[in-house]
Amino acid sequence: MTTTTEAAPPQVVPLEAARKKRRKLTAYWLLLPGIAWLVVFFAIPMVYQGSTSLQTGSLEQGFKLTWHFATYWDALVEYKWHFVRSFSYAAIATVLCLAIGYPLAYTIAFKANQRWRNVILILVIAPFFTSFLIRTLAWKTILSDGGPVVGALNHLHLLALSDAVGLTSGHRVLATPLAVVCGLTYNFLPFMILPLYTSLERIDPRLHEAANDLYARPFTIFRKVTFPISLPGVVAGTLLTFIPASGDYINAQLLGSPSEQMVGNGIQKQFLNVLAYPTAAALSFILMALILGMVTVYMRKAGTEELV
Amino acid sequence: MELHEIADGLPEPVRKAWERSLTNGRAAMTRRTLLRATALAAGAGSLAACGIPPARTTSATGDSPVNSAKDLSDSEKVVNFSNWPLYIDVDDKNKDKHPSLDEFTAATGVKVRYNEDINDNVEFFGKVKPQLAAGQDTGRDLMVLTDWMAGKLIRLGWAQKLEMANVTTAITNLEARFRAPDWDPGRLYSYPWAGIQVVVAYNKKATKGKVVSSVSQLLDDPELKGRVTFLSEMRDTIGMVLLEQGKDPAKFTADDYNAAIARLQKGVDDKQIRKFTGNDYGQELSSGDIAACLAWGGDLIQLRADNPDIEFVIPDQGYVASTDNLLIPAKAQHKKNAERLIDFYYQPKIAAELTAGIGYVSPVTGVKDELVKLAPDAASNPLVIPTPEMAAKVHVFRSLTEAEESDFEEKFSRLIGA
Q: Do the Cβ atoms of A95 and A192 come closer than 8 Å?
């Protein structure tokens, strides 16, 4: 291979270069639809939203761009606890998703035979066939005060324990932080399982055998072989769970009380009820910036070279 | 501030030095920096270009030709009607058929395109706002909005004045108490579709037989702690609390409002109040998760039919009522047909059919006599036909100025946690 290139006559080079140039252009042509999509549905709305966040006025008088940066600070001060709640609920839900999703994805990838594998995968995806809203509403029935779940938890005195920690209150689950976290965990679980499964499924089982031959115990195999290889899946899964969960407002709205509202609820109220578009836009930007910051730090720590 | 303005304010030597550096120093304008500056300026320009124009298109009283469109009623025998879900009578056998609408079509030859696309006043406002603000047709000829939102549309010049000659039945048969709301005195733009009453409801199984009869009890009774909900509709919840505090929702001050908010905030902080709900309180009230709450009259009829444990009480201090109103939006293309539909529903017989179907208060005089023939149960239900004692306790929430509205909504949003 190398010898042929070295032996190639010099006059071929320009031709090669032209072809290379054309190939380079092809890449841009292929990117065009994506870029157009991003410009229309991302860049332009972002500019518009950015402008809105710096305007002052009212719906009836109209809003004018006055470069009113104070809106950001005011919004942050007003909604600081909402941000804290959003990120802590999302973080807990992400950890729970990982704790539930990893063993499940592992089982599907390594333990289940072909037939069961498909059945379990379908079961994981099946809830997506119903609306997000309906799935969340269903939790209201499941966690109902007089329902079997709360009854059992009370019987085991577990709710007394979580009451003491502040996760629940009044020996019930609905309208407490626990309900919101449960809802978030449930709704975003498939986003964790699917990337985990894809990265686990790619692992060659022979690596396990090799590790076994080298006298590694099962836990060591998992710690030294399986988990490191599945790390890109873990990173993708946590991002796909954490980002939408921290912007979610449906779960807090339906399963929470006034003390569990998240930033998303604030944005929704500011946009639709108060009609304070600048505050709402500023909140959206702060949320985006904070998520971006956290994700950047996380990616630095976790490393993502193998993510793609 | 322009560059030269900054420069002019500087002492002479500093200014000279600055000019020098701009022309040949490190900050000199090269082609590249000029390009970059232009790009930045263009970016700022595009930011500046997207201010949001005032929503108001005409003066408040203006019955301007601006908001009307060419009326195609005579050539196109249709009317596009947007309403809330489950807010019209349905045929027993076929849920998609609405007998009263069919009768309208039979009587007038006008076909009704009926859409249940209004779920929430503000959400719907958000949906139609872009067209209305741009002076375009929304594709709807008739919409049903709660009075404060109807008032807002009228104030913004987004509703069309009705042609009185086309709504004579409605003028004659409208109940006296609905004739002069402060947001549409004389009913020039709107006619009520149905009236809504806010009452106190409770599940007697969940309260173990205890009667819950007042807003004070909702807010203070320790036995109800964590099992009480209020409505997320600001006017209904605040109105009831104002009444509890001995204030009149029709003429309260900002201080009264703040006091009501503070009263509710205490309930939230003490965890007495579980949450603020829309229509979704029904399921939880029925299951007993909610022991007592503020509820809407029409919902209760349905809930009580399914669960006899649910009871309601009109507090001694009174209750808040509002109406949902038929309104013709600006630029609607079938205005006359829409007016004929409004007028049609003001015949007592048709109104009775509607009332029997939905269980909300009818604004039409003489509906009781017709309802007795059609649905005797409904006719004797105070939630449908308020008794004179009840009618004496009814209060309406006054309309708010724009400044008040954003201030009050802001405070209420904070109360409900968002």
A: no
